[in-house]
Design brief:
Elements (H helix, E strand, L loop, with lengths): L1 E7 L5 H10 L6 E7 L4 E6 L3 H8 L6 E8 L11 H27 L3 H22 L5 H32 L5 H23 L6 H30 L3 H24 L2
Antiparallel strand pairs: 1-3, 1-4, 2-3
Length: 264
């Protein structure tokens, strides 16, 4: 058996981890995957050559490269995630799904592209968890189909929000900053609660630590929308709301394109 270490320079969150897992799912030569997302390292115990795995990783455009590949004991034991950790991740899925619906509907009502775009970010996080959970026990083709539907759904939503944001740049809009701030405060509280749940597990492995880091990034996005709301009040301009909306849409669209790579 061989142990190969890959550098994945654009692997930032558990979303990329799940995309990689699904991409490599049909490789029977792979015995174990160990993700170190904070260090952007993927260690794989496998049979055969590392180049075959690298050929699968490169099309994802996550900046994959082979660092080293060595021979190891074929009887190596691998620990798996505990059921308690799985339960925490399911709670995170529920929170992200609920906040997507809340932010999307209230974002439309408040005419805030910042809120609508942030809801799409919540959807992106939640949907990757859904793919991972629903695909358990299913065939490889079923997993690829689920990934494809999810990726196209995110892109369609992203394009719609992008077009609407550009339309508001040209024809104007009237975002309600107090709704932006209030809803984002609730989203911020939800993500802080996610951090609290993860804080009890983040030292158990890089997977949970990476989830903690990803939720920290979501907190930053929520804070960005709050800041945009404050700037809308201070400047009486819609521009801060539209700019934060464009930034978040760009991040989500990048993730959606990566998901579609799985279905190829």
């Amino acid at each position: 058996m061989r142990k190969s270490v890959f550098v994945i320079s654009k692997m930032d969150c558990p979303s990329e981890e799940r995309i990689i897992r699904m991409k490599l799912d049909n490789m029977t030569s792979i015995k174990h995957l160990d993700f170190n997302i904070p260090e952007r390292i993927l260690t794989i115990n496998h049979e055969g050559e590392a180049d075959e795995i690298l050929e699968k990783l490169i099309p994802l455009n996550f900046g994959a490269s082979l660092k080293e590949s060595i021979t190891v004991d074929a009887n190596t034991h691998f620990d798996e995630n505990s059921s308690e950790e799985t339960k925490v991740l399911k709670i995170l899925l529920f929170i992200n799904g609920f906040m997507f619906l809340a932010e999307f509907m209230l974002g439309i009502y408040a005419e805030s592209m910042g809120l609508v775009s942030d809801s799409l970010d919540m959807l992106a996080d939640a949907s990757v968890y859904v793919i991972s959970l629903l695909a358990v026990g299913k065939s490889i083709e079923s997993k690829k189909k689920s990934a494809s539907v999810n990726g196209y759904f995110q892109i369609i939503l992203g394009i719609g929000i992008l077009v609407e944001t550009l339309r508001r740049f040209i024809y104007g809009s009237d975002p309600e900053p107090r709704y932006m701030i209030a809803v984002s405060v609730v989203a911020l509280a939800a993500n802080i609660y996610c951090l609290y749940l993860l804080s009890r597990h983040k030292e158990r492995g890089v997977h949970m630590k990476a989830s903690y880091i990803c939720s920290s990034t979501d907190v930053m996005a929520n804070t960005g929308v709050i800041a945009a709301g404050i700037l809308v009040i201070l400047t009486s301009s819609r521009i801060p709301d539209l700019i934060i909306g464009l930034i978040i849409v760009g991040i989500v669209m990048r993730g959606a394109r990566a998901i579609l790579k799985i279905a190829e």
